[in-house]
Design brief:
- This protein is an alpha/beta fold.
- The chain is built from ten helices and ten strands.
- Strands 1, 3, 4, 6, 7, 8, 9 and 10 form an eight-stranded mixed beta sheet that branches. It has a two-stranded antiparallel ribbon with strand order 2-5.
- Helix 1 crosses helix 3.
- It starts with a strand and ends with a strand.
- InterPro entries: YaaA (IPR005583).
Length: 251
């Protein structure tokens, strides 16, 4: 499982005559939680001032984002992997993938959403605005998602690479197993010192994931993922406890 964060920015539009159907999404154990989150999102978005405070957005952004939220149940949908934009997803460049890579993504990529919990890559979703630090009327996001998502992740058989940000990892902690690891992006400088990357880590995650999925069938063990990554020029090495460092290749 390759766990990704969402993005605050979303692509507009969707498949003609499509609309949100929770019954078509993966992880049906989250259906009721998703429905209650949708209720909360619509309620907080009815009033402009309330919505701006809850979502921490400007008046300029509110004109678009609050309308998206008000229409979240009826607007057209896109596969989650195509809906999200921004640095990480631009680096993924999913529209340029081979058909084989796209099928692998459907099997292995999971996105952590503040609104929907865990999303499969091909789950059809509308455009919306809700972030890990949004403040809804009656729900705390960590309390809402952390336990049920963590239970689902604990039942997953096979390695888990957590490429989410720390804030989104808190919405569903990975199990404390040897084959489940949080991935921290680092760069090795000419001086031999390894430094964690900040903004550039999103682009690196996108490029790494695209390369991995295009390389062939996914390995079934963590050691296999580490070996495959090294063959592709990406070093995964032990970091802090429970973590792997992803070393960005030097140009």
């Amino acid at each position: 499982m390759l766990l990704l964060p969402p993005s605050e920015t979303k692509r507009d539009g969707g498949v003609p005559r499509s609309r949100l159907a929770l019954s078509r999404m993966g992880y049906p154990l989250l259906t009721e939680l998703r429905a209650s989150m949708l209720d909360q999102l619509v309620a907080v978005s009815v009033d402009d001032e309330t919505g701006m405070r809850a979502l921490r957005i400007s008046a300029r952004a509110a004109a678009v984002e609050l309308e998206r939220n008000r229409r979240v149940r009826s607007s057209a949908t896109l596969p989650a992997l195509e809906r999200y934009t921004g640095v990480l997803y631009d680096a993924l460049a999913v529209t340029e993938w081979s058909e084989d890579a796209r099928r692998r993504a459907a099997d292995h990529v999971v996105i952590q959403s503040a609104l929907f919990g865990l999303l499969r890559a091909d789950d059809p979703i509308p455009a919306y605005r809700l972030s890990h630090d949004s403040r809804l009327l009656d729900v705390r996001l960590v309390r809402h998602w952390a336990d049920p998502v963590a239970r689902i992740l604990a039942r997953h058989r096979g390695p888990i690479l957590d490429l989410r940000s720390e804030a989104y990892s808190a919405l569903g902690p990975i199990p404390g197993r040897d084959d489940a690891r949080f991935v921290r992006v680092v760069a090795a400088g000419d001086d031999g010192v390894t430094r964690a990357l900040s903004h550039a880590n999103k682009s690196a995650k996108g490029r790494y994931l695209r390369t991995l999925l295009e390389s062939g069938p996914m390995p079934t063990t963590l050691d296999g993922v580490v070996a495959r990554s090294a063959d592709l020029g990406w070093i995964l090495r032990p970091g802090a406890p429970g973590e792997l460092d992803l070393v960005v290749p030097q140009d």
